[in-house]
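= Tokenised fold =
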Amino acid sequence: MVTDTSNRIDKVFQEKKDNLLSVYFTAGFPQVKDTPAVMEYLEVGGADFIEIGVPFSDPMADGPTIQQSNFKALKNGMTVEMLFDQLTDIRQKVSIPVILMGYFNPILQFGLEKFCAECERVGVDGLIVPDLPMVDYLELYKPTFDQFGIYNIFLITPQTSESRIRLIDENSHGFIYMVSSASITGAKKEISDEQVEYFNRVKSYGLRNPQLIGFGISNHETFTTACKYASGAIIGSAFIRVLENSNNLKEDVVNYIKSVKGI
């Protein structure tokens, strides 16, 4: 049964139309037990969504910063089972939407139905699975996602055709993850003219789902620029570096999120 709490993502977009910030970090990084605390501090700082990376040994779409965080988390002993265990009581402390981002292999190994059931149990609102083809999702897996009220969030890139973007929009809930460039993840200093052209092109389609721009967002400047062309932006690599270099997790996480949002 789909419960009302599965719509936290929708509720955010209903309440706030723009300048939304989603923050990615890898579960079990920097220390294996840090995940719940980092989530709490992200909400305190003003993040609107939390994306938790499920560690995987071959994160092919990710740049060196996120790759290293995956390797460190796996070395720390983080597993899918441990992540769900750590998230068991998280809804007593964290109210904003939580999205798990990971590759399909660990999800399949865990068991898709069991994975979605665990997501529902602990209050996860959506999944981002970069290597799950849409045709497979629609033909094989969508009923399971729907059964447990889990939104499957797709990515688009500058190379994604208009027809495919519209197909994704028809079969999506929550938001569309708008990859800013056809490259691996990583923080960049600024947004190029070519990226702006792509953002405007997608904006002109008048899609049903809002978009969040990811890959290359790192600071207040790139965040505010991205927000001109979408409902908000996603930060990953830059935040991983904050965690990596932190001596005081709460202070550093809260201060960084506030600096990005300019609050």
Notes: The radius of gyration is 17 Å. Confidence is low (pLDDT under 50) at residues 1-6, 184-188. Residues 128 and 153 are 5 Å apart (CA to CA).
